[in-house]
């Protein structure tokens, strides 16, 4: 059996989304910036997709700007706001220590340019509080950026409360909602955020297309410079196939959201309960509340996550380790360290992430394979040998 359980990394393109893209490779080949009919046809479809994205998160179509990915959206939101308003408001930015690298690395680079960054610590379940944010605000705070949901452990932050604090103190608020949009309800009016990043390949659109919501009246500086596309804010000839795809994907994801959340939550709970019953000496890193429906992160003590991943792959199961081995960094996940896990425990972590396409049979197969892998790796571990002396 083959089980794809790494949907937080990327998702399979939905067949209906592929179908929606196809006109862009045939009759909709015109440049949307041109004024003749072939260009106008393409422009009409771009704007229709923009309306679909706007409807999904409850904003105006003109508040949606298409980008290449979530990383670009995060960079543009953070740099655009800070650079435009720094002279008026200041150069202090507040975030958390479990943000995606697209945010953390941007902030690190900006520190070298004279910005001051405060990274708030999270608790053992990966949550930050609105009170922490408020206590960190200074007279020169220009921006708060806090992710909606964490990509590794699934914790959903109190975005509405943080946004209220930001508004009260007249500070701009951005949220990286890449892991949230298409998986849980996201309503920018209800949340009260000023800017929000999203990425299509997290909800069954292709890679290479994202979007940034910018509340009307806010003026972030451009990240890129060139032509007049996206109302002169994000130049570059439009990615018509990607734009058609993200419109179709977000429309389908939000239409079926309640049903899919219930299904995926059931899969998550089934796996968590099975792991608790079959594998001793485990640490469940997924929060018990306010968590993404499809995320399971667990540390299996006394083994290495990389070895576990390889053995899962040999059994046809795709998952992700808690350590950043793919980047050549031997350090464990910054998120797992931030919630207080020791290095040796964080190194033995694995994340499974599900979507509506996953099945109960797949969960049961993971529960058949994973305990055997854990037992096998522990047999070879000197740490396990010490535990059983």
Written overview of the protein:
This protein is an alpha/beta fold. The protein folds into 2 domains: about 15-255, Type I PLP-dependent aspartate aminotransferase-like (Major domain) (Aspartate Aminotransferase, domain 2); about 255-385, Aspartate Aminotransferase, domain 1, CATH 3.90.1150. The chain has 15 helices and 13 strands. It has a 7-stranded mixed β-sheet, sandwiched between helices. Strands 9-10-13-12 form a 4-stranded antiparallel β-sheet, with helices on one face. It has a two-stranded parallel sheet with strand order 1-11. Strand 6 (about 170-175), helix 7 (about 190) and strand 7 form a beta-alpha-beta unit. Helix 2 runs parallel beside helix 9, helix 3 (about 70-90) packs parallel to helix 4 (about 100-110) and helix 11 crosses helix 14 (about 360-380). The longest helix has 22 residues, at about 255-280. The protein starts with a strand and ends with a helix. The model is unreliable at about 325-330 (pLDDT under 50).
């Amino acid at each position: 059996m083959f089980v794809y359980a790494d949907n937080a990394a990327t998702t399979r393109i939905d067949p209906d989304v592929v179908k929606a893209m196809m006109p862009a490779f045939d009759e909709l080949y015109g440049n949307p910036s041109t004024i003749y009919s072939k260009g106008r046809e393409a422009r009409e479809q771009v704007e229709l997709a923009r309306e679909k994205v706007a409807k999904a998160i409850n904003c105006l179509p003109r508040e949606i700007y298409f980008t290449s990915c979530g990383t670009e959206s995060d960079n543009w939101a953070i740099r655009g706001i800070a650079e435009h308003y720094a002279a008026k408001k200041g150069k202090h930015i507040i975030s958390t220590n479990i943000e995606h690298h697209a945010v953390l690395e941007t902030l690190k680079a900006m520190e070298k340019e004279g910005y001051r960054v405060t990274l708030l610590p999270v608790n053992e379940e990966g949550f930050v509080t609105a009170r922490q944010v408020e206590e960190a605000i200074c007279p020169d705070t220009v921006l708060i950026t806090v992710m909606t949901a964490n990509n590794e452990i699934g914790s959903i932050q109190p975005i509405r409360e943080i946004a209220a604090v930001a508004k009260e103190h007249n500070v701009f608020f951005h949220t990286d909602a890449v892991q949230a949009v298409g998986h849980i309800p996201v309503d920018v009016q209800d949340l009260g955020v000023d800017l929000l990043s999203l990425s299509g390949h997290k909800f069954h659109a292709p890679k290479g297309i994202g979007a940034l919501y910018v509340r009307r009246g806010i003026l972030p500086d451009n990240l890129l410079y060139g032509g007049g596309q996206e109302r002169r804010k994000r130049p570059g000839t439009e990615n018509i196939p990607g734009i058609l795809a993200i419109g179709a994907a977000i429309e389908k994801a939000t239409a079926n959201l309640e049903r899919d959340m219930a299904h995926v939550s059931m899969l998550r709970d089934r796996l968590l309960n099975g792991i608790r019953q079959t594998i001793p000496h485990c640490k469940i890193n997924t929060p018990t509340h306010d968590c993404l429906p499809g995320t399971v992160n667990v540390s299996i003590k006394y083994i290495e996550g990389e070895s576990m991943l390889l053995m899962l792959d040999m059994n046809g199961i795709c998952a992700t380790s808690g350590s950043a081995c793919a980047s050549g960094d031997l350090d464990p996940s910054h998120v797992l360290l931030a919630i207080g896990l020791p290095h040796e425990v964080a190194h033995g972590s694995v994340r499974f992430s599900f979507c509506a396409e996953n099945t109960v049979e797949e969960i049961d197969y993971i529960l058949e394979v994973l305990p055997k892998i854990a037992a096998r790796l522990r047999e070879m571990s000197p740490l396990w040998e010490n535990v059983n002396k």
